[in-house]
Amino acid sequence: MTRPRVIPIDAAQAEQPGADTLIDWPLPPLQEAAGELAPLFEGALVTYRDGRRLTGQLMRFSPATGLMEFCPERAAIAHVLAVENPLDPKPLDRIRLQAGAELRENVDRLVRKPNGIFIVCCPTGSGKSTTLHSILGHINKADCEIWTAEDPVEIQQEGLRQVQVNPKAGWTIAAAMRAVLRANPDVIMVGEMRDEETAQIAIEASLTGHTVFSTLHTNNAVDSVVRLLDMGVQPFNFADSLLGVLAQRLVRRLCPACRVAEPLDEARVVALANEYCADTPQQPRAMVAEWEGRYGPLQLWIAPGCDDCRGAGFRGRLGVHELFINVPATAPLIHRRAEARELRALALQGGMRTLKQDGIEKCLQGHTDLNEVRGACG
After folding, report:
1. Strand-by-strand arrangement of the 160-164 sheet
2. Each residue of 150-181: pLDDT tens digit?
3. 323-353: per-residue pLDDT in tens?
4. How far is CA 269 from CA 273, 275, 287, 298, 378, in A?
5. Nearest-angstrom CA–CA distance, 42 and 156
6. pLDDT band at 14 (very low <50, low <70, confident <90, very high)
7. Between the CA of residue 338 and those of 115, 330, 343, 353, what are the distances in Å?
8. In angstroms, how far is the first alpha carbon of the chain from the final one?
9. Which one, of 154, 128, 127, 155, lies nearest residue 213 by Cα?
10. Rounded to whole angstroms, how far apart are CA atoms 369 and 348?
């Protein structure tokens, strides 16, 4: 029998499956039991390089080597790109919401509001659903009734009433939301606001005593506000209902076993501060002084590679974030459908940290490197 070739992952990744696992699966499935880890991955959603998303069965796990082997529902040669546990969302603390505690506190404050709409935005594959389910898991208590309308249901949580939509059969997200609203839940999660009808229903629900969470495919937080206005939502209702928009990207995390600090000379510090403050009202000199007060002598980190990361220099991924908070001064801009640059200027004056700024902060903290941040955030 042909044996599968599996790129090893370590025990920590086995406990919390990541998206960088690569498995080559030949035709014959293995018959060996996987032992104690089998329940952890039973029914795991497996994403293949050719785009298929199938339920996978963990067939073998070797604690000595960290090798994992999966059998898909249909035996075929496939390249597994991601293995996801469908039962447990990541705790909100593990998402690393920004470099400091301020954003984490702001998100916690916003998502606990009794009504309003909160949006998570980013391109495909940047972790919108994971973050949204982490937020839902954070507020998922016995006295909070939460319904979702998703296409598809990717992450399952106990305590949530999750509805799988089927547009081909006429069971759209908008139709599911109308049905869900009859149950009068405390929180509603909409998989994605793809059209004006869904957006209008979500906004109306948020104005009638529900907290609504949803996602959008936009490049940054401010663009989400403009996108919804372009969809045709009523600006006055939208301005009253919006709580905030969280944008995010994923970057690779430096391997903690082999990362080393690289001190920055004055020229590189100035260049980094100029890059950080570009297109914002912040001043590079003031930023350097703030960094030195926070981190001491400034340094970036590199990871040459080791056995723990198999020479890659990276292990796992983390998010960089940008939070747009709807404040009273924002309402007049939304009412007159202001351009993104006006909304962005107001948010920056109010202290919003951009995606790239958060990425640079995490570079200075040693979590990732500048090339990763520039590649993800531009």
Report:
1. 160-164, 146-150, 187-190, 211-216, 116-121, 242-254, 314-325
2. 888 878 888 899 988 888 888 888 899 998 99
3. 999 999 999 999 999 999 999 999 999 999 9
4. 6, 10, 10, 8, 19
5. 13
6. very low
7. 25, 10, 7, 21
8. 47
9. 128
10. 24
